[in-house]
Fold:
Amino acid sequence: MKEYIKIHPSDLAAVALTPLSEGTVVQLEDQAVTLLEDIPQGHKFALAPIPAGTPVIKYGAPIGIASADIPQGGWIHTHNLKTGLGDVLDYVYEPNNAPLIPTDDHFFQGYRREDGRAAVRNEIWIIPTVGCVNNVATAIERRAQDLKTGTIDGIFAFPHPYGCSQMGDDQENTRKILADLINHPNAGGVLVLGLGCENSNIDVLKSYIGPWNERRVKFLVCQESGDEIEDALVLLRELAQYAGSFHRKPISCSELVVGMKCGGSDGLSGITANPTVGAFSDLLISKGGTTILTEVPEMFGAETLLMNRCENERVFSETVALINGFKAYFTSHNQTIYENPSPGNKKGGISTLEDKSLGCTQKSGSAPVVGVLSYGEGVQRRGLNLLSAPGNDLVAATALAASGAHIVLFTTGRGTPFASPVPTVKIASNSALAMKKQNWIDFNCGVLVENASIEELGRQLFGCVLRVASGEKVKAERAGFHDMAIFKQGVTL
Structure:
């Protein structure tokens, strides 16, 4: 079993894969390092003396500046390491974007919608236009469970607190995300539930939805109904009849869209789970499929790696705008750009935003970046896309679904039970978490410290995703969890 790792030949910091005790002699290549203190799992130690004011190198790149002299064998963390990042930057396009070698196609058992799109679930969704009808929506969900028959995979409500008392872009976000979910192919039928007096009422929302199939989408305004729950059940029966006409059939994995997200990260996330997702992403893209990487603040410090992988200067310019636009969002609210790692991240061994970002972006693999999506924008091009959304788990995962992801891959070092509107595969960075939270975790990357390879795990994760796409339920689905959250940016009236 591996006890420590030096990720890149030029690194000055290595990472403990298991807890290491003071006095342990670490042998790396022709170098022996004696640890001067206990090093927790996922945390870093110095391979050479690092003077104060000089960069600390991990992943082959700076993860910050030493704020004090760090001796060889010393623990490197927040007490002696600080961010080296600045604010809005100018960037130069230095292309490094070799296309992936195509590989053989694979198939999953999915649903083919009447408009030609592929789906991995055949669910009926109840989507409120406004938070005022959330309780009604959940009551309808409870009453409608007897309609879950045949090929219908589930009936779910998606309550949220928005849809009224919003202004400008904030209100636009709500309308776009609701419309995206109404149009999502995983929903074989949708009941749009309105109150009647809200800003984002059904008549307003229809212009965002665009053309719809009247058999697939039904609308109910509660203020116009004598008994909204009974009237909703009538509409749901019609939707169930329509949705029940769909059956699974073989569909090329080139039609799969998979979102990639991490949360509750630890010091192993960028070494085990995120690189495995990166290997999966490259494999899916090599077969013609699509992946989406988001949580823009967790690209800060690693953004040039993504920029240089942009397929052309137009995509590069869009990526620059994505990064600098999100930095401007922070500063416009008088917030510090680079204080991102959470207390849980730091406890797990992540010291700075550069440390977190360089690990986070491992999920993108090595494929060229072909597209940059604004918040609420649907994916248009197959391949690796970047999506504008924050790091918040529920907001970002919902944004991935709204942009067209059939499935979300969520890596974690500490675990979380949350779900999203689409199947959310929980991927553990360490075996202890996978063993402890078997009711949360779907896939374990902790075996990488037991001499498994990233390439093999990537293939195993690809197989897992195909099974989920074919109907195998993830742990959150088995628990009955379906969540959504919208990016709140503006004034509440």
In short: The chain has three domains: 4-82, 123-245, 252-478.
